Each structure stands twice: as structure tokens, then as C-alpha cells.
């Protein structure tokens, strides 16, 4: 009788059904596959995130995606956490989580095209976030937003800078929605039967490069004030470039070349939210003459500079301070109450407690 030690071991099944493919080609296929389901900005963001993975594979000599192992994924996670791949300092946990989540989605796609084994993506674990760690704390304080708008109304009325901030602040909309507005989407006289005053309509138009984040569900009308309507009218009459975009549409906001790029809104906000831009003293004890953030290309390096996302969070905070019903805020900003609470409401704990007390009976 043979000893159990010499018993026949189970036959190892080799994975022979994988098709060789270079990592960069698989990333291109993934990018192409997203066209039908995702906005261009999302596709470009995912492609940018995966470039670091392609670079990692090049440095490790991995020429075939079939050869990537669980150990490689762990090494990549550490490599990326330390800021490798773009020459930066170590990245924040929330940034790392987002980049690894994109890689997991890519590996799921790679399994569908027989580039890696099914379920291989599960070998890439995501970092655990502590409470609130995945939430940005920056915002444009409502008082500051109103101060900047007041300055623009006096110093640069009806310019594109003014209208960008006015629309972002008054509607609380995302930049993609503002960018996608056409002249025909704006009713400055209040002729629409549903409204008694001026309004504008956000429309999902993915086929001509102006999708809304929530697609058709994001299509909606928003009221605007009479004052903002008059400024928009003056912008159209005196400052708007009379151009069409590459699809023959007439954008509301324009550059000399057509519809502004998405980055135009971000750089505009960085520039006009710097205190020194409005002639104020620097609150950061910097020498204005030597500060690199005074240069238009480096405005984002000013600690006081804020992004369009910060305007949106500031608007939510303003609504909440004024006790605007959540349902109204949710519908106007086209976001769930959970997202509004978690990512946009910047009231302090004390403010929230005091507002709650207004609705509670005295004990």
C-alpha cells in the first residue's frame, strides 16, 4: 500500500485562455468601451488615472497584462501611495482610494476581454477611510462669495468672469451644466408658462459634448433673479463673442474660439477668489511682489483660491443657514440629500445644533 505522502496530487489547471495584450492597449480599449456610458470628462479622468499604472508596468518590465500578479498590484499600491508616477509628494488616502477604484474597474473590464483571470480585481484592496476623510473641507464661504460678486458688479459688470460666478452661485449648478447652456436655454423675460420670472434650462446633450452628470435626470429649469437676468442680457449685448461651437450651437458663455473648455471655469474661479486680485491685503503674510500665485498660471497656489466645487458647497451652506427645505435644495442642485449633507454642507456643528434648536420645544 502506498504511503499517503506519495498519493497523486490534484492536477494543476493552467490559465491558458488568456489573450496576451500590452497594458497600454488594454487601457485604450477600456477608454473606448466607456464612450457609450460615460461623459467625456469621466473618460478622460479615468484614462489619466490609469496612465500611472501603465508607467508602473513599463518600469517593472511588464509587457503583457496576463503576467500581472497580486504581488504586482500590492507593489503598485505602495508605489502610488508614495507619489510615484507623477513626481509629486505622497498622496492623500482619499486620492489613492479613487485611483485604485479606477484600476479595479479596469481590471474587471480586462477580465471580460480575457486579459486577466475573472475576479482578479478582488486582489486589489482599497484603503479604509476614517470618518469624514473622503470629504473635502474647502468651501467658498457665503460671505466671501457675496463680497466677490459685489466687487464684480462694480468693477467688471456683465463680463464673463462676473456671469460665471453669478450663475455658479445663484443656481448652485455644476460647471458642466453652466458650460452647456446655449442662448436658447435662457429665458430672460420670464415668458415660460411655468415661471413668473426669468429662468434657464439645463439640458443633457451628450452627442454634442455637453452632458449633464445625472444625464436626462439632470435636465431641469432653474429660476434666476431679475438682477442676474439683466446682467446676462448686458453680457450677451456687449461682451459675448458672437460665435458658435464646433457643433453649430450658440453657447451662452463663449471665448473667441467658441464654447469655453471645462478648465476655463476652474482657472477663472482660482483667479477671482484671490484677495489680492480685488486689491485686498494678503491674509497669508505673503509679499505680493514675490508671490507666484499672483501670476495667472499659478493662481491655484494661493491658499485663498477656491474652485467651482467650493462655490457649490458654499451655496448649499447658505441655503441650509437660511433653512431652505432640503427637497428644494436637492431639486435645484440636482443631487441627493445624502450627497448634499456629506460633500457640500459646510455649516459648523454649532450652527447645525442652533438651527435644530429653533424647531424643538423648550424643556
UniProtKB/TrEMBL annotation:
KW Endoplasmic reticulum (keyword) present: no
All copies of domain Core-binding (CB), residue ranges: 21-111
Keywords associated with the record: DNA integration, DNA recombination, DNA-binding
Pfam families in the cross-refs: Phage_int_SAM_1
Entry superkingdom: Archaea
Residue ranges of domain Tyr recombinase in the record: 135-357
Any one Gene Ontology molecular-function term assigned to this protein's record: DNA binding
Database matches in CDD domains: DNA_BRE_C
Species: Haloarcula hispanica N601
UniProt protein name: Integrase
Taxonomic lineage of the native organism: Archaea, Methanobacteriati, Methanobacteriota, Stenosarchaea group, Halobacteria
Biological process terms in GO annotation: DNA integration; DNA recombination
Amino acid at each position: 500500500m502506498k504511503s499517503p505522502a506519495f498519493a497523486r496530487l490534484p492536477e494543476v489547471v493552467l490559465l491558458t485562455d488568456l489573450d496576451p495584450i500590452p497594458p497600454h492597449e488594454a487601457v485604450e480599449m477600456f477608454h473606448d468601451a466607456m464612450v457609450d456610458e460615460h461623459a467625456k470628462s469621466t473618460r478622460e479622468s479615468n484614462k489619466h488615472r490609469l496612465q500611472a499604472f501603465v508607467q508602473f508596468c513599463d518600469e517593472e518590465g511588464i509587457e503583457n497584462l496576463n503576467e500581472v500578479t497580486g504581488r504586482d498590484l500590492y507593489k503598485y499600491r505602495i508605489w502610488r501611495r508614495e507619489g510615484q508616477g507623477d513626481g509629486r509628494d505622497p498622496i492623500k488616502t482619499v486620492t489613492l482610494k479613487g485611483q485604485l477604484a479606477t484600476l479595479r474597474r479596469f481590471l474587471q473590464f480586462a477580465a471580460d476581454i480575457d486579459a486577466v483571470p475573472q475576479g482578479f480585481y478582488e486582489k486589489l484592496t482599497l484603503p479604509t477611510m476614517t470618518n469624514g476623510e473622503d470629504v473635502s473641507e474647502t468651501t467658498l464661504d457665503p460671505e466671501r462669495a457675496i463680497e466677490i460678486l459685489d466687487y464684480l458688479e462694480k468693477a467688471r459688470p456683465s463680463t464673463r468672469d462676473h456671469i460665471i460666478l453669478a450663475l455658479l452661485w445663484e443656481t448652485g449648478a455644476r460647471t458642466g451644466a453652466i458650460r452647456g447652456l446655449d442662448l436658447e436655454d435662457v429665458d430672460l423675460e420670464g415668458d415660460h408658462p411655468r415661471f413668473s420670472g426669468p429662468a434657464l434650462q439645463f439640458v443633457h446633450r451628450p452627442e454634442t459634448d455637453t452632458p449633464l452628470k445625472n444625464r436626462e435626470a439632470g435636465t431641469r429649469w432653474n429660476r434666476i433673479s431679475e438682477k442676474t437676468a439683466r446682467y446676462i442680457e448686458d453680457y450677451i449685448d456687449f461682451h459675448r463673442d458672437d460665435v458658435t461651437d464646433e457643433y453649430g450651437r450658440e453657447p451662452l458663455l463663449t471665448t473667441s474660439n467658441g464654447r469655453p473648455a471645462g478648465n476655463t471655469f476652474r482657472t477663472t474661479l482660482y483667479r477671482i477668489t484671490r484677495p489680492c486680485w480685488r486689491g485686498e491685503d494678503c491674509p497669508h503674510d505673503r509679499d505680493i511682489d514675490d508671490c507666484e500665485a499672483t501670476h495667472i498660471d499659478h493662481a491655484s497656489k494661493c491658499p485663498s483660491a477656491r474652485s467651482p466645487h467650493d462655490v457649490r458647497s458654499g451655496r448649499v451652506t447658505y441655503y441650509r443657514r437660511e433653512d431652505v427645505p432640503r427637497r428644494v435644495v436637492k431639486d435645484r442642485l440636482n443631487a441627493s440629500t445624502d450627497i448634499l449633507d456629506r460633500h457640500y454642507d459646510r455649516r459648523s456643528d454649532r450652527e447645525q445644533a442652533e438651527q435644530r434648536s429653533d424647531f424643538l420645544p423648550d424643556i
